[in-house]
Write a structure and sequence with these properties.
alpha+beta; 7-stranded mixed beta sheet; 4-stranded antiparallel beta sheet; 7 helices; 28% helix; globular; binds glycine
Length: 254
């Protein structure tokens, strides 16, 4: 079993304690027999509830001052759930988790909010953060005792982007990817991540024989130094995190 967690590329070590707390929550769940999806989602909920991070309660604001969040959950059993441009939901990762079990895999805007309400999630005003954020996201990749791997990510996006803008976090293959023996989550400027299909391409490097650490460095090398990017990943045998900026992250494994 293992879990790797990040608190966003570009974030300082001042919030490392929040990432450690979230990793401990996910690890304890795995140790108690939880499945990878439950552990990854619970870990991300802890970070969404910590307003120092750009997700959930601490999400950044759009050009009009509103808060819209994106989230995604995927499992290497083939399930995928995504919620985008979601307002008034403190834990968007829980909406993405519910979508995983539907016969569609993504909802956005009002439809996502209506769906959340219909599934018992109570909307609440999310004030968001006044802090200008440049692409931070929170994420977790977990592998449970059965070997299943799940990825969960959540973000407030990038400060000052327009209403309705959707970043990389729910972009399958861009902001997250999982397949047999691999799970990857990205953080940073969403457009840069999506345009390069970053997580899928990094996974291909692992399939071609690179170690996780080498593959993450390969992914970072696709970018100039002023484009803030971070990655976390698990395989069947290891976990890793890397960023071209500061990025709080934590790994637990047995
Ligand atoms: N990586 C978060 C975003 O760009 O939306």
């Amino acid at each position: 079993m293992r879990i790797v967690v990040h608190g966003g590329a570009g974030h300082t070590g001042e919030v490392q304690d929040g990432v450690e707390t979230a990793a401990d929550v996910g690890w304890k769940l795995l140790d108690e027999g939880a499945d990878a999806i439950s552990a990854a989602v619970a870990t991300v909920v802890v970070l969404e509830d910590d307003s120092r991070f750009n997700a959930g309660t601490g999400a950044c604001r759009r050009t009009d001052g509103s808060v819209q969040t994106d989230a995604a959950v995927a499992c290497n059993d083939g399930r995928l759930g995504r919620a985008a441009a979601l307002e008034d939901i403190a834990n968007p990762v829980q909406v993405a988790r519910l979508v995983m079990d539907e016969d569609f895999d993504a909802l956005a805007g009002k439809g996502a909010l209506d769906y959340a309400r219909s599934r018992g999630i109570t909307p609440a005003m999310v004030a968001g953060s006044e802090k200008p954020w440049a692409g931070d996201t929170v994420g977790a990749v977990a592998q449970d005792a059965s070997g299943a791997i799940a990825v969960a990510s959540s973000t407030g996006g990038v400060s000052g982007r327009p209403v309705g803008r959707v970043g990389d976090t729910p972009h399958w293959g861009g902001g997250l990817w999982t397949d047999a023996g691999i799970g990857i989550a990205a953080t940073g400027i969403g457009e840069a991540i999506s345009r390069r299909l970053l997580c899928f391409r990094v996974a291909q490097q692992v399939a071609d024989g690179l170690s996780l650490a080498e593959a993450l460095e390969w992914g970072l090398a696709l970018y100039p130094a002023d484009v803030c990017i971070g990655l976390i990943a698990l395989s069947d045998s290891e976990g890793a995190g890397a960023s071209n900026a500061s990025m709080p992250w934590a790994l637990r494994q047995d």
